[in-house]
Structure formats: C-alpha cells, structure tokens
Amino acid sequence: MSNFKDNDMQAVIGWILRIGVLLSMSVIFIGGVIYLYRHGHIPADYHTFKGVPDFVTTAPALINGIFTLRGRAIIQAGIVLLIATPIIRVVFSAVGFVLEKDYLYTGITLLVLFIILASMLSGHAG
Amino acid sequence: MMSVIVFTLIIFIGSYFAGLLGSLTGLGGGFVIIPLLTLVLHVDIHYAIGASLVSVIATSSGSAAAYVREGITNIRLGMFLEIATTTGAMVGALVAVYIPTNFIAVLFGVILITSAIMSLRKKAEQINQEKNELAEKLKLNSSYPTASGTVAYSVKNVGGGFFMMLFAGVISGLLGIGSGALKVLAMDTVMRIPFKVSTTTSNFMIGVTAAASAVVYLQRGYIDPGLSMPVAIGVLVGALSGSKILVHTTSSGWLRWVFAVVVTFLASQMIYNGFMGKI
User: Fold this and answer.
1) What is the pLDDT of residues B100-152, one digit of tens each?
2) Which residues in chain A touch residue B150, judged by CB atoms under 8 angstroms apart?
3) Of B94, B116, B87, the residue nearest B267 (C-alpha)
4) 3-state helix, strand and coil shares in percent for chain A, rounded to the nearest 5
5) Mind telling me how many Å the CA of A43 is from chain B's nearest CA?
C-alpha cells in the first residue's frame, strides 16, 4: 500500500466529514421532531443554568432513552456523533500517514488524539 | 414564558440568518448566535456557548469536506497546528468554569470587534518562498492549485504561528466560537501563507479544535439537546445557502460593511451587559 498518496487521504477525509455531518444532522432532526411533538407545548426555560436532564448524561441512560424514543436522548446521540466526526477524521489521518510511511506525522496525529482524550478525561474529573 | 415550539422556531430562524451571514463574511455563525441567545432570548451564557460550539463543528466539517477535495487545504500544516489549538481548547474549556460570566461576555465583545476589523482588511495573495529550516523539517511547505497553474509556497515563523494558534484555541474553548479569524491571522500575517490556503486550512482545523472543548462541555451539561438542535440545524442550513450565494455573486464588499456594523452593535451590547453584570 505504499502507493497511498495525499490525494487519497484528501478523498477519504472529505468522505468521512460528509457522511458524519449528514448522518448526525439526520439523527438530530429526527430527535427534534419527536421532542417537539411530545414537549412542544410546555414552556421553554433556559434562563438559569441547571445542566441537562439526567437521561442524556451517561451512555447507558442515553442508549435507554434512544430505545424508548425520547426525543432529547436521540438529539444528544446525534450531537455526540457530530462531535465524534472530526475526531474520527483525525484517526483516519493517522492511518493515512502510516500508509504513506510518514512516521513524523503519524506521531503528530497521535499526539492530537492524545490531547483530545486528555480533554475528555479532564472534563469527566471536573 | 414562550412554549418550546415557538422558542425553537425563533431560534431556528435566527440561527439560519446567523449561519448565512457567518458564511458570507467568513466570520462564522457563533458571532451572531451567542448575542442572540443571551441578549434577546435571555438564555444562560453557558447553554449558548454549548449550542454555538455544536453548530461550529457542523458548519466547519460540512465545508471542510468540500474544500479538502480541491487540494487547497494543507493537511500537514493543519495537523501540526492542531496540537496547539486542541491544547488551547482544552485549557479554555477547563478554565471557563472558574471565570465569571460577565467577564466572558466582555471578552466575547472584544474578540468580536477585533475579528470584524480583520475581516475588512484588504487581502492580497502573497507567495512566500524564503527557506525556513523548521518548516522544511516539518514538511509544512506545499503547493496549491490556482487559475494559472500549481503554485509552491513556503511557511515562515513556525514558532510564532504555533503560539498564536494556542491563543486561538483558548479563545475557541472559552467562548464556544470557531475563532477562524484568529487562525487566519496567525497563518496569514505570521506564517505568510497564501490567503486561500490559510482560510481553507483554518476551516479544516476548526472542527477538531471545537471537538476538543465540546468533550468537556458535553460532560459539564453545557450542551442542551433541546437548544442545540435548532441552533445546529439552522446555522448549517444558513451556511449552506450562504455558500450557494457566494458562488453567484462576485463582490461581497458592501455585505462586509453591513456585517461590521451589526457586529459592532452586538459586541458593544455584550460588553455593556457584561460590565453591568446583566449576563
């Protein structure tokens, strides 16, 4: 696979970003329709910060919420998918650099992934 | 109090125009969204920042998908500078919790005015071909397609650019915006990269930068699904119509001036309300 070139990487990255945005926005839209259908009439209150509902905070609760067709759980799953899209792009870039035998940039890409992971863990601790 | 459906519709329409203006001027949608949510709809600024961040990821990923195929984006340069922007974004998101909201509002206003002024600058395409040892070692020098064939360029002042990107990352993480104007400034004036390359590469980096702080905000409960849904969809659809309009118009000079006036108004409102402790 030494003939893997920058052009191939560009095509793969473009494809991942497109699919990721399309998929996550569709999920957000479907969740939004369900949410508005079920909760459209209640008053909207975002004036004071209260965090988010419990059923969208942890992975098991979120998955349970998706299967019981809770609108906001489905929206949040779409948002998680959207946030994951550029991160998945970085993962595929790392693979691309390995295929190009560019080990300097494989290292740089892995460092970026490590920083994002550190950010994820530090957010959890705080 | 408004019902959820009316509230969602208003936010969707507002976000559509924010995305449209953000894409036409190149400033991004977050600049209109955060003042709209906080000043007009009295949404808590933490929720506003979370929702804006989600819309930033959607628009930058969507447009990067198109740009990256044209071969103008410098992927290695973007990857290298993402070390700085993601580190900055993580720091910004972590310290945001300890910073008073009125200070965030004032800072937002200041960055907004700075970015608007920079977007009005005359942009002359520059090609730097001076040798730079560090840029060569990091394989940052590249070429890009133009109307008159492929043009090679070199990158200058790698350390300075890297440092500026660290700052751009902190601002992005702190305020929930793409801080594309700061990224372009770093690549344009510090690293002497051709304007087309710096805009597309900046856009390429925005998604990853925003994701690095979004993973923190997600766990802190800043990203509310009910609010983020109309913001993300509205801004993305608005940005898409913006890019369609851009293809059909040759000059957006007058539009930049209109936007500069709107931006100055919004920024002064954010600063005023921040100082008065109303945000």
Assistant:
1) 999 999 999 999 988 888 877 766 677 888 888 899 999 999 999 888 889 99
2) none
3) B116
4) 80, 0, 20
5) 4
